[in-house]
Structures are given as structure tokens and as C-alpha cells.
Amino acid sequence: MKTSRDTVRNTDRIHNSRRAGSLLKTVLLASVALGVVAVPALAQDTGVIQLNTIEVQTSGDKGPRVPVEGYIAEYSRAATKSDTPIRETPQSISVVTRDNMNDRAVSSVSEALLYSANVNGQRYGADVRSDYYTIRGFPADLYLDGIRIPQIANQTGGYSGFVVEPYSLESVEVLRGPSSALFGQSNVGGIVNMVSKQPQAEASNEVYLRGGSFQRKEFGFDLTGPINNDPRFTYRLNGMIRDADTSYDLGKNNRIAINPSFAWRPDADTSLIVSGGYLKDDLGQAGVIVPAYGSVLPNPTGQSIPRDFTDGDPRIATYKKEIGYVGYQFEHRFNDTFTLRQNFRYSHLKTDYRNLFAGVLPTSGWNGRTLPRTNYLAQPELDSIAFDTQLESRFDTGPLEHTLLVGVDQQWQRLDNYTGSAAGPSQDLFNPTFNQPLTPVKATTRLLQNQYQTGIYVQDQIEAGNLRVTLGGRKDFVKVDSEQTTLSTGRSVDYEQDPEKFTGRAGIAYVFDSGFVPYALYSTSFLPTLTLADTPLKPTTGTLKEVGIKYAPEGANYSVTLSAFEAEQQNVVNRISGVYYQTDEVRVRGVELEGTAQLWDRLNLTAAMSFQDSEVSESQTPAQIGKLPYTVPKDQQSLFVSYNVPLPDNLKGDLVLGGGVRRIGKTAGDTLNTFFVPSYTLVDAFLRYDLGNYRLQVNAYNLGDKKYVAGCNSTSQCYYGQGRSIVATTSVKW
């Protein structure tokens, strides 16, 4: 319940929060510096070491912890938190491997997902502030190595989303459907789990240089191997630095990222991996909003808004974000029955965001060229701690083989956000004038928000011959307290929420010897809802019914998944022009088909298509019932291929040609469907030449330089997609 009271700003809490962020940054930078100095020295041969014999998995082995070669992954631990093969899991799962990401030279996790079935990876076009994607029409929740990544509003993206550099990742997993029964906080559409590169016992090093469109200059490195030639102790250190502009004026895409990790594997049954990460983005005018009139709809002047138009101003185009995290993954196998795992991560995010951006158009009398603008300031700082402890036991009861998982996880996050806004000077869409008189904006509001969550979960995976049954349940206890203070008066508004919810899932699959695996799944979802305002919202809940069939013969170099689903989510959160509101219920029915293959040792391909019917099924606003949610495509198709071209015997090396086509169907432009954003089709291509340890590669995106709008929220807010860009990469391994 809201209460109003006079309050005094708690400066101790403010200073403690700022000191915590500075301390984390110092610790991370110190650890990185130590790693840079120590790794070369530790890698030197200092003599003969007598070791106990231990098992070390190599790239020739297969398993959930082994790096995947090629485009096909056989395992995804995130789906069940166990070592279950993907083909035996009653759920639609995609894995974007490291080789796939390398071929496409991806620069973000959103780009990594562009060819995955029913994933809209760039719903806000060329905006680089965060990773923006939906799965089956719903925002996806983000995980790193099985631990949820905190978000400032409990939804992926936003103006200060937690991002991860894709070069630090081994793979990106898409788990369609709710995962609340294991992970707790999840939308009904699914989750994205990013898998970090891990230290390897075999020494391997790589450096690369990259340059291209928009004055892009980039350098990266990836080093791994044993310490003192002892395979029990291994390290990994990767990082990159980029300086680049964007397709629109005043935008930048500068980044520094570094990720050290250390592994201790004293025997085949025990492992401890300690890892950290630091990322800094400097983006200038990080995103641009344009009206629908002149981009999607006809403009009264008859003109089209240029794709490089910016709604910002060079004096205040500021977007700087720092992210740091440190954690560990521990596993110990006691015997053939019991295995204990514990994962931990502390995360910190800090953003300085000061921009002019497009405001709401007048309801009548607009001349088609004068763009109202808002002068905005936001300085959020987020801290988070997450634990996940699980005990796995494998046993038989008669003819039934069980993999029983019992676990508890706890998460805490604290947001401290200062914001302010004021009307800014208008801008001419077709003849912009910069450096107009502008009053600096100061913070006027402070939001202090804490969330505590504890979840207890149980899952039993049962095998009976070729039959696979998965049963899981979880109970979540959540407490949220928020305090929003008007800084000029010291007056605050508080509210508390303490929702709790049981979620579950039941799945069944039958593994035919031929490789066909039909399956069915029912699961539920639960997501406590946070906003960046003092408005308390109801938790989001959902249900999913899904049936499908997979074709993946054991050991085959191809796999296909066909699925049909119906998803319903209640209390869906939308945000338009800074205002949060909830739609009572959204229902999505769809069909998906996805296939991946490695053929003849020369051809890699991934193909996907999806068709879905989404609608607002219940709403307190009757006019919205039966309407499509905005930025949700009705259909998507994609195909990406790489081919190793046979060369004459007198030519050394490997020549690889590849490319892809991706189509996004039309989407609704606003909540009442008064207009639609047209479908668009884009073509990508790449050429690579490998000669021993050296590689030269050229990638082209949106090869036809198609001008398109990726999505709209209203007639006032639309987002251009990226124009054609070309990048060249040269790398060496040793």
C-alpha cells in the first residue's frame, strides 16, 4: 500500500552504494591486471611436475561442458540444469554455437539470435543501448551460465540493460517456453542463456583486428591453457576494445570488455571455476526515435525522414555504462548417485544517460516537420547477488531411472536511480538545427528499490526404456520495497509487495530408435514486475501448452524441430512514452520449424520459420481486445549457409563462402492497430580464407542497403533498422 510521508534523504545509503560500485571496479581491474602479468609467467615450463592421473575432456569429446565444433550442439544444461541431451528434452531449444557466431562476426547477443526461430532480435532497430529481443512475442529473460542477469525493470532491454560481450561467449541458448519451474523469474515466451568461454587444458591463443563501416576499429584477444603445464589449474583471459560510429548522427558504439577466469579441477569429480567480467560502453546518442509519419506512414510534407537523422544534440549526447561481475561455479560428484553444484555471482551496473529524444506528437494540427523533444537524465546504479545450490541424485526404482534435482536459489538486487526531465527545443525533421538554447536538466527524482527472492525447486527426470518424463515444481517467495523521493521537497512515496507463487511443468517425450522424438509440454511462469516509477504492478503470470516432434538420430550431423504452442500471459507490462500500464492477458498461438545441419564436411546451414497469431485476449480497455501487441511479427523466415569451397591441389588453405536471408513479417504499430509496420527482408554475406593459423574474413550485413523500420510503439515512436555495413577481420591462432 502507498503511504506518503516526509523523509530525509539517506545520504549514507547513497554514498555506500557509490563506494560499492567503485570498489567492485577496482577489484575487477586489479584482478585483470594481475591476470595479464601472471599468465605469461605461469605458462612457462618451470620443470617436471609429478601429477596424479586425472580425466581431461578434449574437443574431441562430447558433453555439456565441451566446446562445440560446428553448428550443432547436442547438449544444453540450462534446459534442465542436468546433462540431458537436447533431443530428449521435451522443449523447443536452439543453440547458437561459437562457430556460427564467428562466421557471422556478431557484435551483440541480439545479432547472435537473428537466425533463431521465432526470436525477434532487433525489435528496436539500430538502438545499441541494450539487447532487445522477444521469444514467441514476449520479452525474453536473460541468463549467464544459468544465473539470471538482473535488469532495472525486470525486463530485458530498457534504457540501461545489462549486456554481455559476445566474444566472451562459447554459445547462446534459446529455451522457448516458461522456465520458472527451475529458474523462478521468467516470462512465458522463454529465456536466453549465455554460456561463457571456460578455461581449457589445451593451450590456445587468438588475436584479431577488425575494421569497417562507420569508422569501426576493433581489437580482441582470447588466451587459454594450463598454468605451469598442470592441467588441474587452467586460465582464460579474453577481451576486446572497439571504437566506432553508428548509422545515425551523434551515435557511437565504443566498448571495452575483459573477462578473466580460472579453473581448478583436482580430479575428474571436482571443479571450481572463478570468473569475472568488466564492460564499458560509450555510445553518445545511443538510439534514435522518429515519428511514424515520414518513416512508415506518409508525411504531410511528402518527404521521408532520413535514416541518419538524430533526435539528439551534440552537447548532451551522452550514454556511458559500466558493468562488472564476479562469481564462481562449483561442482562435486560424490559418487555415481550424488552430485552437488553451487553457482554464485555478484553484479554491478552503473549508467550515465543524458539525451534529447523525440517526444509525443500533438494530437491535431501537426505540420509534419516540427519534432517535439524531451530533455532527459537518468543515472541508475544496480547491485545484485545471486546464489543457486542444487543436489542431483541418480537412482532406479524398479524399471524407472531417475535424475532427481533438488535446489534452492536466492537473489537480491538493489536499484538506486536518479532521473529528471524537461521539455527540450523542437527539431526540424528535414532541416535540423543543433546547439539550440537548452536548459540543463538536473535530477528531480530518486527511486530506491530492493527485491529479495527465494525459490525452492524439485525436478524429476524419469526414463523407462525409450520414454522420458520430466516433472518439476517450484515455490517462489518475493519481497519488493520501493521508495520514490521528490528531491526538491524530500517527500517520498513508498510501496511494498510480497508475492509468492508456485510454478510447475510436466513434459513427456518418446525417443524412437529412428531418431524421431515426439514430445508434449505444459508449464507455467511467474515474474515479479518492477518499474522505474512509483506505480506498483501485479506480477506477470503465464501458461504454455506445447506439442512437437524432433528428428535427431543419435550421432547424426543434423537435427530438426517442429513445434506448435499456445501461450497465455497475464498482466503483461507495456511502456509507452514513459508511462507503464498492464494488459490483462495476451494470447499467442504459433507453429515453429527449425533445422541445423553439417553435411559432407563442407556445408553448414541453419533454417527457421515461424507463424503465430497473437492478440490481446482480455483488457480493461475494450478497444484493445482482439488487437495485436506491437513489435510482434506474425511470421518470420531465415536461412544461413556456409560452404567450404573445394580448391585445386596446388592452392593451400580453405575458402569458405556463406550468407543468409532473414525476413520479419509485418507488426502492429500501436496498441489499437491503427497502422502496421511493413515486413522486410535482409540479406547478409561473408567470405573467409583460412591459411594455417591465419584467417581473413569479410562480412556484409543488409547487403542491399534496404531502408526499413524495425518496429513502432505508437505514431510518435518508430525505429529505423541498420543500413548496410561491411567489416573485415583478420586473426591469428597459435
From TrEMBL:
Report the residue ranges that make up the TonB-dependent receptor plug domain in this protein. 86-191
Which GO biological process entries does UniProt record here? Answer: siderophore transport
Q: Which PROSITE patterns match?
A: TONB_DEPENDENT_REC_3
Instruction: List locations, semicolon-separated.
Output: Cell outer membrane
Does this entry carry the keyword Membrane?
Answer: yes
Which domain of life does the protein's organism represent? Bacteria
Question: Does the record's keyword annotation contain Ribonucleoprotein?
Answer: no
Similarity section: Belongs to the TonB-dependent receptor family.
Q: Which NCBIfam families match?
A: TonB-siderophor
What is the protein name stated in its UniProt record? Heme transporter BhuA
* Species for this entry: Ochrobactrum teleogrylli
